[in-house]
Design brief:
CATH topology of the largest domain: L-2-Hydroxyisocaproate Dehydrogenase, Chain A, domain 2
Structural class: alpha/beta
Bound molecules: ligand NAX
Order of helices and strands: EHEHEHEHEHEHEEEEEHHHHHEEEH
Number of domains: 2
Radius of gyration: 19 Å
Shape: globular
CATH superfamily of the largest domain: Lactate dehydrogenase/glycoside hydrolase, family 4, C-terminal
CATH class of the largest domain: Alpha Beta
Number of strands: 14
Number of helices: 12
CATH architecture of the largest domain: Alpha-Beta Complex
Helix content: 40-55%
Strand order of the largest sheet: 3-2-1-4-5-6
Length: 333
C-alpha cells in the first residue's frame, strides 16, 4: 500500500467539514487504496466541539484512516501537509454581504499562508473554500512565497455543480449528462456561469446546451441568476449556508485535481491567472481547466468568447481586483 497522504481540513468543528471529513476518510477523493493521515484544525474556542468531532471520526472506524490529529495549533496542523482543504472562516449569515466578511477572513489566510510557507511540503495542493474564497486563496499564496502559485486554488466547483444540476433538471437528464459548463471569475454573485461550450447527452446523442434547452432567454437570464444567487437562496431557506453540497464539491475539486479529468472534459477551478482570455495576470480567477493525473492542470485555451460573455468575464474580474485591493489594505495594516 502507498504511503499515507497527510490531508488537512480546517474549520473542522464547522458544518462543511462535518460532511467533508467523512467523504475524504472513506476514500471517495483519493481512492480506495490511498491511506490517509487526517489533520483537523479549528480555533481554541471550538476545542470542545473539535474533540467531539474527533471522537466521531474515530468511531467511524474507517480502514483508510491511519491517524487523526485534532489541533488548534496552526504550526502543528500545517506541518508536512500534502493536501490542504481550507474551509475554516467566518460564514456569511443572512443579509450579510461578502465584503463584510473580507476583513475578518483575509487575516486568517495571511496567517495560514505564513504557516504553510514554513512547515508544509513545497508540493502541497491547496483548495480554499472559506469566503471570499478567491481572494483568501490569493492572500494565502502571497504569504507562502516558497510554494508555487499554481498549487493554490479556490472552490468554484459548487457553482459548476449547481449550473449542471439546473440544466439537467430543465432538459430532463442525469447531471453527469451535462458536460463542460464553465464558471468564470469570482465565487460571488458576479460569477459568470457559461454554457456556451457545454453539451447535453440525451438519447445517445451529444448536442449543445442551447440546442437541448431551446430557450436562449432562460439560459442568458434566469439560469445565470439562479446559479449566481443559489448560495443566498440556500441561506434564506435553511438559515445556514450550503454545507453538504459544498463538502461534496470540495471532494469533486480535489479528486479531479488529483486524478485528472476524463479525455475531452474540463472542470472549473479558481486558479492563478496567467493572462489567459485577457484576465489580468495574478488574479485568482475561476477558469475551465484540464487536470492531469500528475496533479497539475492547464487552463483550457482557444474557447470563443462572445461580447455577452466578455462583459460578464470582465465584470467579475473587476470585482476580484477590488477585493484584492481591499484585502491587501487589511493585510498591510
Ligand atoms: P461554520 O461556521 O460552520 O464553520 C467554520 C469553522 O471555521 C468554525 O468551526 C470556526 O471556528 C472555524 N474557524 C474560524 N477561524 C478559523 C481558523 N483561523 N482556523 C481554523 N478554523 C477556523 O462554517 P461553514 O458552513 O463550514 O462554512 C465555512 C466557509 O465556507 C465559510 O466561509 C463559507 O462562507 C464558505 N463557503 C464557501 C463555499 C464555496 O463554494 N467556496 C460554499 C459554501 C460556504 O458558503
Amino acid at each position: 500500500m502507498a504511503e499515507p497522504l497527510k490531508v488537512l481540513i480546517t474549520g473542522a468543528a464547522g458544518q462543511i467539514a462535518y460532511s467533508l471529513m467523512f467523504q475524504v476518510g472513506s476514500g471517495s477523493v483519493f481512492g480506495p487504496n490511498q491511506p490517509l493521515k487526517l489533520v483537523l484544525l479549528d480555533i481554541l474556542p471550538m476545542k470542545s466541539v473539535l474533540d467531539g468531532v474527533l471522537m466521531e471520526m474515530m468511531d467511524c472506524a474507517l480502514p483508510l484512516v491511519k491517524e487523526i490529529v485534532a489541533t488548534v495549533d496552526e504550526t502543528e496542523a500545517f506541518t508536512d501537509v500534502d493536501v490542504a482543504m481550507l474551509v475554516g472562516a467566518m460564514p456569511r449569515r443572512e443579509g450579510m454581504e461578502r465584503k463584510d466578511l473580507l476583513a475578518a477572513n483575509v487575516k486568517i489566510f495571511k496567517s495560514q499562508g505564513a504557516a504553510m510557507d514554513k512547515v508544509s511540503k513545497k508540493n502541497i495542493k491547496v483548495v480554499v473554500v472559506g469566503n471570499p474564497a478567491n481572494t483568501n486563496a490569493l492572500i494565502c499564496s502571497k504569504y507562502a512565497p516558497s510554494i508555487p502559485k499554481e498549487n493554490f486554488s479556490c472552490l468554484t466547483r459548487l457553482d459548476q455543480n449547481r449550473a449542471q444540476a439546473q440544466v439537467a433538471a430543465r432538459v430532463g437528464v442525469d447531471t453527469q449528462n451535462v458536460g463542460n459548463t464553465i464558471i468564470w471569475g469570482n465565487h460571488s454573485s458576479t460569477q459568470f456561469p457559461d454554457v456556451s461550450h457545454a453539451t447535453v447527452t440525451k438519447d445517445g446523442k451529444v448536442v449543445s446546451v442551447y440546442e437541448a434547452v431551446k430557450d436562449d432567454d432562460w439560459l442568458k437570464g434566469d439560469f445565470i441568476k439562479t446559479v449566481q444567487t443559489r448560495g443566498g437562496a440556500v441561506i434564506k431557506a435553511r438559515k445556514l449556508s450550503s454545507a453538504m453540497s459544498a463538502a461534496k464539491a470540495t471532494c469533486d475539486h480535489i479528486r479531479d485535481w488529483w486524478t485528472g479529468c476524463a479525455e475531452g472534459k474540463w472542470v472549473s477551478m479558481g486558479v492563478i491567472s496567467d493572462g489567459s482570455y485577457d484576465i489580468p495576470k495574478g488574479l485568482m480567477y475561476s477558469f475551465p481547466v484540464r487536470t492531469k493525473p500528475d496533479h497539475t492542470y492547464e487552463i483550457v485555451q482557444g474557447l470563443s468568447i462572445s461580447d455577452f460573455a466578455r462583459a460578464k468575464m470582465d465584470a467579475t474580474a473587476k470585482e476580484l481586483q477590488e477585493e484584492l485591493a481591499a484585502a491587501m489594505e487589511v493585510c498591510e495594516h
